Structures are given as C-alpha cells and as structure tokens.
Amino acid sequence: MGTWTLTFNEQSTLWIITVLGATSIFFAVRITEGEQEDTERNDDLFSIRKSYDWSLIFKAISPLILISIGAGLTIPFVNLFFNSVFGLTSSNFSLLGSITAFLVFIFSLSVPFLRKKYGYWMTIVVVQALAICCLVIMAIMELYAEFSFAIVIAVIAFILRQPLMHMAHPAANELLMNYVGKKNQELISALSSSLWSASWFVSAKVFEWLRLLQFRYYEIFLITAVLYVIGVILFGLLIREYETKKKIKKGEVLPLADELTMD
Q: What is the full per-residue pLDDT of the chain (263 aa) written as tens digits?
C-alpha cells in the first residue's frame, strides 16, 4: 500500500481555507434574529433617495473611500515589492504574513481598552498615523536596497504597519455607525463592505498604469501614504463633529435633569 502524504503548497492551503470557511455555515444557521423593529421608511425601491440621509452618508464614507483606494495600491503588491527590491522569496514572505497575522490578533485585543480609555482620537487618528509612518519608512527603504540594513527596517515596518492599520477598523466602524444614526446604519454597513472590493479593482488598474509609466514601488506607496493622510484628516473632522454634537446633546439634557432633581 502506498503512503498518503499531504504537501503544503498553494493549492492545499487554499483547500484548507475553503473547508474551514465552509464550516461557518453550521454556525451561521444557528444564529437567531430577534424581531425587526418597525422603522418609518418608505419601502418603495424608487424612493431610496428619500429614505436615507445621503449627504451624511457620503461625508461618513469619504475617508473610507480614500483609505480603501490607497490600500488597494499597496496591500496586494507588497509581496512583489519585497521580491523585486530585496529578493525575498514567497516562503519567506509567507512567514512574515504569519507573524503579521498574529500581531493583528494581539493588537486587536487592545482596541476595546484603548477605545474606552482614550476615545476615537487614539484608536483611529493616532494609530493610523503610526501605520502611515511605517508605510513611508518601508517604501523609502527601496532607495537604500543595496545596504543590508534596508531589508531589516522594511520588514519591521511591514510587520508593524498592518496591525496598526487594522486596530483602527473596529473603532472606525463604530464611529461611522454612530455618526450616521440608526436610520442609515444598514446602508453604511453595505457601502463599507462593497467599497473595499470596488476600490481595489480600481486601484489594481491604477497600479498597472503607474508601473507602465515607470513609477517605482516606493513612489506608488507614497501615493498611498498621501491618500491615507487625507483619509485620516477626514476621520479627525468626523470625530470632532461627532463629539461636538454629542456634547451639545448632553448639554440640552442636563438642565432638565438638574431641574428634576432639585429639592
């Protein structure tokens, strides 16, 4: 009888991921939803323009659009960057990906603590600013590729960038949901999910066009950094507006509460 061996290559890895993903159906069907609240909304499909606050929604997703387009210019092509610039093999890059995924898990555990203690500014603006710094450092190392220290710094920057960027996602989603209000939450959730796929398709074409124009990797990654910076600034404006409205709302409630508790 022959011996059965499992070879870990791209095909077997994809099959393992597919099988693990398919098992989620078992857990999904066991989820029980409560009764849906009756919302005051016109169910006519052609009245969708009147059913949502589109100006508010567009303002909320603006930073997400920029960040997702920027991510599409970088994330799918980081492996090509390390292979072309530093000669890093696919197996070595896979090891880096595993380390990064582990750090994403560890960093994500700290998000609730940071959110409660420091608010949105720390968990979104500051954290993403640090991630942008890591991206810029990683990109600039292409200019020093002939030196041995360049790959070390680029690898460290790559390993730190993704966990820092992912840390901001839960807080950013919470901010967007709170900012647009309950009426618009289902639409903002759908748009947030679809934007990544749509923007990455556009970004892939832009990346191909830039490479045909002889743009180097670091130049494309710096374009991503610029888009990230603008997106983070817009997030900062959203946070300031949301917190201002929240304070005003509290200020309107407090006088009534004081009056009710007076002797």
A: 456 666 767 777 788 888 888 888 888 877 776 665 555 555 555 556 667 788 888 998 999 999 999 999 999 899 999 999 999 888 888 889 889 999 998 988 888 888 888 889 999 999 999 999 999 999 999 999 999 999 999 999 999 999 999 888 888 988 999 888 888 888 888 888 888 788 888 888 899 999 999 999 999 999 999 999 999 999 999 999 998 888 887 765 444 444 433 33
CA distance 166 to 133: 15
As for how many domains the chain has, the answer is: 1
Q: Is residue 51 part of a domain?
A: no
* 261 within a domain of the structure (yes/no): no
**Contact, 102 vs 162, CB < 8 A?**
no
* 254, two tokens: 């407090």
Give the structural domain span for 167. Answer: 74-251
**257 in a domain, yes or no?**
no
Do 60 and 180 meet the contact criterion of CB atoms below 8 Å apart? yes
Is the residue at 244 inside a domain?
Answer: yes
pTM of the model: 0.79
Is residue 100 within 8 Å of 158, Cβ to Cβ? yes
Please give the torsion angle defined by the CA atoms of residues 224, 60, 53 and 181, in that order, rounded to the nearest 10 degrees.
150
> Rounded distance, CA 262 to CA 78, Å?
63
Ramachandran sector of residue 223 (left: φ over 0; alpha: ψ -120 to 50; beta: rest): alpha
